[in-house]
Write a structure and sequence with these properties.
About 40% of the residues lie in helices and about 15% in strands. It is of the alpha/beta class. About 50% of the residues are buried. It is globular, with a radius of gyration of 20 Å. The protein contains 17 helices and twelve strands. The chain has two domains: about 5-200, NAD(P)-binding Rossmann-like Domain (Rossmann fold), CATH 3.40.50.720; about 210-395, N-(1-d-carboxylethyl)-l-norvaline Dehydrogenase, domain 2. An eight-stranded mixed beta sheet has the order 5-2-1-6-7-8-11-12, with helices on both faces. Strands 4-3-10-9 form a four-stranded mixed beta sheet. Helix 1 (about 10-20) links the parallel strand 1 and strand 2.
Length: about 400
């Protein structure tokens, strides 16, 4: 099995790297040099232990300790001769990662973004800007293959908790005409062992179908008071309990917002002539919401009045606290919601629910989220008419 390189050594990078190694692949991990101190011990021991329930409808489990083949801050060393290059850094760092990686791309490499978060668009733009003509496949997914968190870092091994494994994820390629070749090339990628891939019709479909902006942004913004008081004000939460939007933040009112936001995304997708993951309204009014379907399959729903015990959900680093600096705001809002607003403008679709969240977050954080983050121009599709955009999505012509 050919080498797999993970660009980014956070939660996603740790989990996917260990899973692929346990699945029999040669695995390398790259981290940006400025974050080298955070992986100093990992560079030495290269050991990552996977543990946790790995909940999924197929009862698949792959716990164990993996010793990676390489952990490095040298991008050239990491990418040389690799078949798969998987971007596992946060979307905010996709530009930096693409600028570093593109000069070392090789013909025949398979590039993946999990989740895409418009990363495939950024990579293709950077390739054009740098004059890179390497023949590669570029694919993106709606999510990473599991819910995971680093729970331990030490001199002997790092540890990652896997709460669930996905059984269905949506994907496509940029351009879409490469999708068949891409999914065939991904047959030796162990993280897909539990997943039934669902083909999207374009990479915009994949990004409209990303569950994170839908689940994370409304439930974080509109629980801001509880989040900031949690474990600080008497009788409001506990310092020993991690505030979690699924356990503590979801409610019928939050579901109303999520459903309305989804309707706006559906309207934009329809106006632009692209697809989106279909959901029935009722699934939004459950405790598991649309996430439950991802790892337990169609028809799974945990009732809203069901309390999720701590031992059945995510585990975090000791002392870690949820606050409004979470990626649920700093990533999902300026990337997901900002792009939905801008694509709505292109499509001629009003987005009052998305806009309300951008306004609220801008006031809360003192940041203008209508100008910060990703935009059509930034990802390389600015100025394209709807018909020209479809040609680019399907055939790569621009």
């Amino acid at each position: 099995m050919s080498a797999i390189v993970f660009i980014g050594a956070g939660n996603s990078g740790h989990a996917m790297a260990a899973d692929c190694k346990l699945g029999g692949a040669e695995v390398r991990m790259y981290e940006f040099p400025e974050y080298a101190d955070g992986i100093r011990e990992l560079i030495e021991h290269r050991a990552i232990k996977l543990w946790g329930p790995e909940r999924n409808a197929k009862d698949f489990k792959r716990n164990g300790t993996a010793v990676l083949d390489m952990v490095t801050t040298d991008i050239a060393q990491a990418m040389k001769g690799a078949k798969h290059v998987v971007f596992t850094c946060r979307a905010n760092a996709y530009e930096k990662a693409a600028q570093l990686a593109v000069p070392y791309l090789e013909d025949g490499q398979v590039i993946s973004f999990m989740p895409d978060n418009f990363g495939s668009f950024i990579l293709r733009r950077v390739m054009r800007e740098l004059g890179c003509t390497k023949k590669i496949l570029v694919g993106g997914w709606t999510s990473m293959p599991f819910g995971s968190r680093i729970t331990h870092k030490a001199a002997d091994f790092n540890q990652v908790y896997i709460m669930y494994r996905a059984v269905q994820l949506r994907y496509d390629t940029l351009p879409s005409c490469d999708a068949e070749a891409y999914i065939e090339a991904m047959a030796d990628y162990p993280c897909l062992d539990t997943i039934d891939p669902l083909r999207g019709d374009t990479m915009l479909d994949v990004n409209f179908s990303n569950v994170n902006p839908l689940l994370h942004v409304p439930a974080t913004l509109y629980n801001a008071g509880a989040i900031e008081n949690w474990g600080i004000i008497e009788d409001v939460g506990s310092r020993e309990v991690f505030f979690d939007i699924y356990r503590h933040g979801f409610s019928p009112s939050i579901s109303n917002i999520q459903w309305a936001q989804y309707q706006e995304e559906c309207a934009i997708a329809k106006a632009l002539g692209v697809g989106i993951q279909p959901y029935d309204k009722d699934i939004f009014y459950t405790r598991s919401n649309i996430l439950g379907v991802e790892f337990m399959g169609d028809g799974y729903a945990l009732p809203m009045d069901h309390s999720i015990p701590a031992e059945d959900w995510m585990i975090y680093m000791p002392g870690e606290r949820f606050d409004l600096n979470t990626r649920y705001i700093t990533e999902d809002l300026p990337i997901g919601c900002r792009m939905y607003h801008d694509l709505g403008v292109i499509a001629g679709v009003q987005t009052p629910v998305v806009d309300a969240m951008l306004v609220a977050a801008s006031v809360m954080k003192g940041v203008d989220y209508f100008t910060q983050g990703f935009s059509p121009e930034y990802i390389g599709i600015g100025g394209l008419s709807p018909s020209a955009l479809l040609d680019y999505l399907k055939y790569g012509t621009i």
